[in-house]
Amino acid sequence: MKEYTNYFEVNKATWNKKVGIHAESEMYDLAAFKNGKSSLMPYELRALGNVEGKSLLHLQCHFGQDTLSWSRMGAKCVGLDLSDEGIKLAKQLNFELQLDAEFVCCNVLEASEHISETFDIVFTSYGTIGWLPDLKPWAQMISERLKVGGTFYIVEFHPIAWMFDYTEGKAELNYHYSQDEVIYEEYEGTYANHDSKMVSKEYGWNHGLSEVVNSLIEAGLQIDYLNEYDESPYDVFPNLKNTESGMYKLDNQLYPLIFEIKATKK
C-alpha cells in the first residue's frame, strides 16, 4: 500500500481538521451523546442485537461515538481510526463517560499490525470503504481479527450514491459504479457543517457490491445476507426529504441509498 501513502496522508490531514468541526456540529450532537443518547442507527442495532459481554472491533470509528455507544450496551470495544485527533477525542470521551473502550490510531489496512486479539464482532459503518483503494487486504484483515464463528457487519452508503459528484451542492453523475481510478475532490465545508470554511481535500475509490461481497468470501467469510434500502439515517446528500420513520430519502427514489452485509467467519 506504499503507493497510496500520499493519498492516505492527505485524507488524514482532512479528517484531523474535521474532528473539531464535527464535535461542535448539530449532526453529532455531542451534548446529547454525553447525556446518554446513543449514536447508533436502526440498521446496525437490528442487525447486531444484544452485544452485552461480546468483544467488538469498530473500524474507522472517527471520534468514537458509535464505539462508545456499543460500550454503553455492554460490549468490550476497541475502536480504530486513521485520525490521531479523532482518537484523541475518543479517548477523552471514554474517560469522561467512565467507559472501558480502547482506541488505536492506525490505517485500517494495517490493523493487524497494531491489534493482535480476535473479536466476536467486527463492525464498520457509513462512509468507510470509499477511503480504501483495494478491499482484498481490508477483508483479509477482518478475517484475521474475527474469532471463528464471529460476525462481521457493515452498513454503508450504496455504491450507486457514490457515482455522483456532490461538491457543487447538487448530484451530478460523474463516476463509474466500481472505479479503480482514484477520485480527488476539494471543496469547502463538511457533510456535518456545510457552512464551515474548512477546505476538505479527499482521495477516494468506488467499490461495487460484487467487489465488497467477493472480497469477504475470498477472505473466508460466509455471507449471511445482503440487503439494500432506500432510506438513509443521515441527511448527507442533496435534496433528501425527512420520512415518517425519521430517516431520509429522495423525492424521486430510483436507487437505494444504503446497503448492509452480515457475514460469519467459517
Walk me through the structure:
- InterPro entries: Methyltransf_11, SAM-dependent_MTases_sf.
- Helices cover 29% and strands 27% of the residues.
- It has 266 residues and is an alpha/beta fold.
- Strand 2 (76-81), helix 5 (84-96) and strand 3 (102-105) form a beta-alpha-beta unit.
- The mean pLDDT is 96.
Keywords:
266 residues, alpha/beta, Rossmann fold, seven-stranded mixed sheet, two-stranded antiparallel ribbon, 8 helices, 13 strands, 29% helix, 27% strand, globular
Rg calculated over all Cα atoms: 17 Å
| Biggest sheet strand line-up | 3-2-1-4-5-13-10
Would you tell me which CATH topology applies? Rossmann fold
Helix content: 25-40%
Overall outline: globular
H and E string: HHHEHEHEHEHEEEEEHEEEE
CATH H-level homologous superfamily name:
Vaccinia Virus protein VP39
> What is the structural class?
alpha/beta
Task: Write down how many β-strands occur, each being a DSSP E stretch of 2 or more residues.
Answer: 13
Report mean pLDDT, rounded to a whole number: 96
Biggest sheet record: 7 strands, mixed
Q: How many helical elements? A: 8
| Proportion of residues in extended strands | 25-35%
User: At the first level of CATH, what is the class?
Assistant: Alpha Beta
Weakly predicted, low-confidence segments: none
User: What's the structural domain tally?
Assistant: 1
| Terminal residue distance | 27 Å
- The second-level CATH architecture is 3-Layer(aba) Sandwich
GO biological process, one term: methylation
Keywords: Methyltransferase, Transferase
Protein name: Methyltransferase family protein
Domain Methyltransferase type: 58-154
